[in-house]
């Protein structure tokens, strides 16, 4: 009976089971094709045939086992097993005989009852003595044999695999195939029943795991290459449309993108790329095939220019293309039908396309001739794909070959289109009509329209574009001259009429004017009329022809620019130029009217709010609020203007009573102080107010305004929230400021801008690590000036970028000399430059610094850029951008004066910092109180946890350095290590240290705990100059004597205090603190007085730096002690008071200021 079953299954493989399915036991099997339903009279014949076969069948033949050899890497078992269909939900078969020849029976239930699945039964035998593992594969989609109509698309193939003995095969997860791992024990024979999910029988392959993995890797590599080429072609064809706006480029790109989509689906990338479900691959495949067919049809329509060749063909192809595009959307409803229709549509597309290309080629069309070779390749590819789909072509090489052919077709298509589109003759081939069409389109796109004036008939005609824009019906503006002029604005009507009559009277000429035409809603639009009067050749009748172009946007822009030229864009108030003009006019009227105009300048000094600094939105709202408040205090005849970023000015002409003006100024001051709530923050302003009254001395409005500004400046210096009336003696200060601006322009050329250098020591080994460069102006009249005293002059002279570049170049040049004189490969010297001023952080200054640092004259990370904490907190976002820009060229970034103000620790994470420079107040407060410096220790620990190196300023005593060293601080800076020195003194010091190191025999010592070699140590000493080095004094004038330096007793060092620097003894002026006025400068201190050099005056924002001295100060670093390794005695206290005995943290008393000595 078994033999009868097998024979019957083979004979009935292409029939369909009877509808009644009277008995599930009656077999009815079929193979891959689904055939049509057989007539009902066939059923009795099949029953008779079944009985005949059963009765005449020979002995029963059991299932033959497939021998699995270890050397066999893959095996197609599709036709080596038994295929069952229509057996219901249960299948009972006889197993293959084992080694002993005994057979058995096994029955399997369907996974889902009522599905009536198809079954595949096969047996595998392992003749070897080793275990064999194989992978059973069934691809979810096979192009070969998938059929044209109602194709077999992506779907799951295998529901489960049941063995007769042993463990159940384990499913391996995969998106493109059903994989099961099968294990065969030595000498065993196992029968497997495969339950199928699909209607058609798939191709079953038995793979060795390594061979399957290698094939998957090779296939993935090939797929990636093909997909990359196709993607690049699609991107290229899309991007080239920007350079050449031809329709053929997007049409060709559409073909390329469709091919990319098809390849993505076929390679299994589509659902991964867009995070979609792989179960819908059939929908994606059907849509991709429909898109590819539609794109080729659209390409033919555009490339062959069917609209110009045969216009009716455009309608046919357009409708056809819409149907093809509709198939893409229909794929969601029925993917199988969509795929079948798309595959069928390739045949008419290929046939019609071939016919059109051949016809145009015989007509001499270059386009068709260029496309012909590429189209022939497409026909070959289409033939191969059709043969493979119908099942006549199969094999592992078929699908890769067809995919490669599709990519090659797209590549040749792109090259052909690109070559022809950029050829010079293509434009000429378009014909004269195309040029006229483009000209008309260009005229319409430009917003221009034709304007005609028939002089003899007195008629004017315009194009329909103008009538459409103005809102009139067609033909409304085609009327007589007088009627047409009624649509012109009354202010322009007479001028246009005169121009027309002039052209008529002169029998020729040109028209060129701007006019306004009324719209149907009563508003007006600006138009530009450009025309020329010509005479017709036959009748010599004068006629004007021109263009009307809409220039409304341009006119409004001009009006806006005119308004912005004299009014502030934010507040809407007059700006400085309009204010000066009105002030000058008021001064001219005062002679006849007898009034004295008064100018009040309001300068906003300070903003008090809950945040550190208001952002841009709050600042704008604040200025708008201030403008509204100030406008309440001016009358109609007065003027309120915004003359600066934070400056407003009032011009009073309605009232000249001094008491009224004083009361008005007081009301303005109080209105500024009144808090305002903006964006949830309460903001209070403090302003300085200056008043100037015209008295006949002022030449113009600028002079009057300058006096008021000078009075406001004096009020700001005297203290916030003040009112000052201009007095003639205030001009002296203004003259000094103007003098500084003038002298600064020549200061660099005259070598008056100098740099002083203060040592920075590494505390771990007391070794010289580098220097901080301090910018100074050695003014011939005012003495040594700190940046605080001339940075405003530099801003007005637009020299901040020049100063920054000069300082960086000078510092880097000196650093290069130091490193060359004292070569320390592992630990080279560095230099730090402070740019802590808002003006020095502008984009142009930062760019100049980047240029200088980027030259690479010194090793990377040897140039430090310091920015103070205060400046960072004013505008963190801008500072982050500027610092990041400097860091990219190799600069190390340091946050200076950390701990001196109120900052947010959160910003430390955002800033690209390398070093934290702690303010000297942390050391001074700990030393003065004698308590445990918890704050200092905590800040150091935080810096190290954040990965920053720490530098502590104000190290003025031995025990300060020892304690900081014990806390693990990296660097120290202060009078204990040395005072600021000139370039020559630094060079002498470096040379001395280098010779001392060489004299010691080049011996190196190992740093404690690291094992790294260190250079000779540099310790501070009492001497003012290096041992054996030539003492260099600063230049002196003839009138200045050589004063001896004295040592005064002090309790901290056994009765000795540091000597005053020579420059200080000579009476050079010294930079003051932030609260000191710029002029007059304080007198020099007498010998023995507490030196003010330790204050932070080396900053662009005016804050004084610890340990700085005047020009010519002696270095306090002893190279002899550095070489010998001796610990120096404690130095004198630089502040002139003993911190061991005096715990008060107040600064030492200042001596009274006297006249400034100038040289």
UniProtKB/TrEMBL annotation:
Keywords, sorted A to Z: Membrane, Transmembrane, Transmembrane helix
Q: Name the Pfam families for this protein.
A: 7TMR-DISM_7TM, EAL, GGDEF, PAS_3
- GGDEF domain: residues covered: 595-728
Residue ranges occupied by any EAL domain in the UniProt entry: 737-994
Where does the record place Low complexity bias? 998-1014
Indicate the transmembrane segments per the record.
Answer: 41-63, 221-242, 248-270, 282-306, 312-332, 344-362, 374-393, 405-422
Could you tell me which residues belong to the region Disordered? 998-1159
What SUPFAM superfamilies does the database record attribute to this sequence? EAL domain-like, Nucleotide cyclase, PYP-like sensor domain (PAS domain)
Q: Which PANTHER family match?
A: BIOFILM ARCHITECTURE MAINTENANCE PROTEIN MBAA, DIGUANYLATE CYCLASE DGCP
Q: What is this protein called?
A: PAS domain S-box-containing protein/diguanylate cyclase (GGDEF)-like protein
Q: Which organism is it from?
A: Dichotomicrobium thermohalophilum
The lineage, from the top, is: Bacteria, Pseudomonadati, Pseudomonadota, Alphaproteobacteria, Hyphomicrobiales
């Amino acid at each position: 009976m078994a033999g009868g079953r097998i024979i019957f299954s083979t004979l009935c493989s292409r029939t369909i089971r009877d509808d009644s399915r009277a008995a599930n036991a009656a077999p009815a099997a079929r193979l891959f094709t689904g055939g049509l339903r057989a007539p009902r009279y066939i059923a009795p014949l099949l029953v008779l045939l079944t009985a005949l076969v059963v009765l005449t069948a020979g002995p029963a033949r059991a299932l033959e086992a497939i021998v699995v050899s270890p050397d066999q890497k893959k095996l197609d078992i599709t036709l080596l097993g038994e295929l069952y269909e229509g057996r219901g939900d249960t299948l009972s078969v006889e197993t293959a005989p084992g080694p002993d020849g005994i057979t058995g029976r096994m029955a399997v239930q369907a996974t889902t009852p009522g599905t009536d699945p198809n079954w595949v039964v096969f047996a595998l035998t392992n003749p070897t003595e080793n275990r064999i593992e194989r992978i059973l594969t069934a691809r979810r989609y096979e192009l070969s044999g998938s059929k044209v109509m109602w194709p077999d698309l992506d779907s799951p193939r295998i529901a489960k695999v049941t063995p007769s003995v042993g463990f159940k095969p384990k499913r391996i997860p995969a998106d493109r195939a059903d994989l099961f791992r099968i294990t065969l024990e030595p000498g065993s024979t196992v029968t497997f029943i495969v339950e199928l999910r699909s209607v058609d029988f798939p191709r079953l392959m038995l793979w060795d795991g390594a061979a399957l993995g290698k094939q998957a890797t090779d296939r993935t590599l090939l797929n990636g290459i093909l997909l990359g080429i196709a993607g690049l072609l699609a991107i290229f064809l899309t991007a080239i449309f920007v350079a050449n706006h031809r329709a053929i480029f997007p049409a060709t790109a559409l073909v390329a993108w469709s091919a990319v989509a098809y390849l993505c689906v076929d390679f299994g990338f589509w659902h991964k790329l867009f995070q979609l479900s792989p179960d819908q691959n059939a929908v994606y495949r059907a849509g991709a095939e429909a898109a590819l067919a539609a794109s080729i049809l659209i390409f033919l329509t555009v490339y062959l220019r069917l609209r110009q060749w045969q216009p009716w063909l455009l309608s046919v192809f357009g409708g056809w293309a819409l149907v093809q595009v509709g198939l893409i959307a229909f794929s969601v409803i029925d993917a199988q039908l969509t795929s079948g229709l798309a595959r069928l549509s390739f045949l008419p597309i290929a046939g019609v396309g071939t016919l059109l290309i051949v016809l145009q080629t015989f007509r001499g069309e270059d386009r068709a001739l260029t496309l012909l070779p590429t189209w022939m390749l497409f026909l070959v590819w289409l033939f191969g794909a059709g043969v493979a789909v119908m099942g006549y072509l199969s094999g592992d090489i078929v699908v890769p070959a067809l995919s490669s052919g599709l990519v090659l077709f797209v590549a040749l298509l792109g090259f052909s289109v690109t070559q022809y589109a950029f050829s010079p003759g293509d434009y000429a081939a378009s014909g004269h009509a195309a040029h006229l069409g483009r000209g008309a389109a260009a005229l319409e796109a430009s917003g221009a329209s034709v304007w005609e004036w028939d002089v003899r008939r007195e008629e004017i005609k315009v194009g329909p574009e103008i009538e459409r824009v103005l809102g009139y019906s067609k033909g409304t503006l085609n009327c007589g001259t007088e009627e047409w002029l009624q649509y012109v604005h009354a202010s322009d009507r007479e001028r246009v009429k005169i121009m027309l009559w002039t052209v008529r009277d002169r029998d020729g000429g040109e028209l060129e004017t701007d006019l306004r035409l009324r719209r149907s809603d009563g508003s007006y639009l600006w138009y530009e009329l450009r025309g020329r009067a010509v005479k017709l050749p036959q009748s010599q009748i004068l006629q004007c022809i021109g263009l009307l172009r809409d220039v409304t946007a341009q006119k409004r822009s001009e009006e806006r620019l005119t308004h912005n030229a004299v009014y502030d864009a934010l507040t809407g108030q007059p700006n400085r130029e309009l204010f000066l003009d009105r002030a000058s006019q008021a001064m001219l009227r005062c002679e006849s009217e007898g009034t004295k105009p008064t100018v009040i300048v309001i300068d906003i000094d300070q903003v008090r709010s809950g945040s550190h600094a208001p952002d841009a939105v709050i600042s704008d709202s604040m200025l708008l609020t201030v403008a509204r408040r100030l406008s309440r205090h001016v009358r109609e005849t007065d003027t309120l203007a915004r003359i600066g970023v934070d400056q407003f000015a009032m011009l009073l002409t309605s009232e000249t009573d001094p008491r009224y003006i004083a009361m008005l100024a007081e009301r303005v001051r109080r209105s500024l102080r009144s808090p305002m709530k903006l964006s949830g923050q309460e903001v209070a302003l403090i302003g300085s107010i200056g008043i100037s009254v015209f008295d006949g001395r002022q030449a113009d409005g600028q002079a009057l305004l300058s006096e008021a500004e000078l009075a406001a400046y004096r009020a700001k210096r005297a203290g916030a929230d003040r009112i000052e009336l201009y007095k003639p003696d205030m001009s002296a200060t203004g003259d000094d400021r103007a003098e500084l601006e003038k002298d600064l322009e020549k200061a660099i050329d005259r070598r008056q801008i100098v740099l002083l250098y203060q040592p920075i020591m590494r505390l771990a080994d007391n070794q010289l690590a580098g220097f901080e460069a301090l910018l100074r102006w050695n003014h011939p009249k005012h003495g040594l000036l700190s940046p605080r005293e001339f940075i405003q002059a530099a801003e007005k002279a637009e020299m901040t970028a020049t100063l920054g570049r000069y300082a960086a170049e000078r510092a880097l040049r000196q650093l290069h000399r130091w490193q060359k004189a004292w070569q320390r490969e592992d630990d080279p010297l560095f230099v730090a430059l402070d740019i802590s001023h808002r003006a020095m952080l502008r984009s142009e200054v930062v760019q100049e610094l980047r240029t200088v640092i980027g030259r690479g004259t010194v090793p990377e990370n040897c140039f430090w850029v310091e920015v103070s904490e205060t400046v960072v907190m004013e505008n963190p976002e801008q500072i982050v951008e500027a610092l990041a820009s400097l860091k990219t060229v190799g600069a190390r970034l340091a946050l200076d004066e950390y701990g001196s103000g109120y900052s947010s620790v959160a910003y430390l994470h955002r800033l690209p910092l390398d070093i934290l420079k702690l303010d000297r107040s942390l050391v001074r407060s700990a030393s003065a109180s004698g308590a445990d410096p918890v704050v200092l220790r905590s800040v150091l620990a935080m810096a190290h946890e954040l990965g920053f190196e720490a530098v502590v300023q104000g190290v003025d005593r031995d025990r300060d350095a020892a304690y900081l060293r014990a806390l693990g601080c990296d660097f120290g800076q202060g009078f204990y290590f040395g005072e600021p020195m000139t370039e020559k003194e630094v060079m002498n010091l470096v040379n001395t240290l280098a010779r001392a190191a060489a004299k010691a025999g080049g011996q190196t010592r190992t740093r404690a705990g690291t094992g790294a070699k260190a250079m000779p140590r540099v310790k501070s000493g009492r001497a003012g100059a290096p041992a054996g080095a030539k003492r260099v004094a600063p230049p002196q004038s003839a009138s200045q004597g050589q004063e001896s330096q004295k040592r005064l007793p002090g309790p901290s060092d056994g009765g000795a205090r540091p000597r005053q620097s020579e420059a200080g003894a000579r009476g050079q002026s010294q930079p003051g603190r932030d609260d000191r006025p710029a002029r007059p400068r304080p007198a020099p201190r007498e010998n023995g007085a507490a030196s003010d050099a330790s204050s932070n005056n080396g900053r662009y924002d005016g804050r004084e730096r610890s340990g700085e001295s005047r020009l010519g100060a002696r270095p306090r670093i002893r190279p002899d002690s550095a070489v010998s390794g001796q610990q120096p005695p404690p130095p004198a206290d630089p502040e002139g008071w003993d911190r061991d005995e005096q715990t008060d943290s107040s600064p030492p008393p200042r001596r009274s200021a006297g006249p400034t000595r100038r040289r």
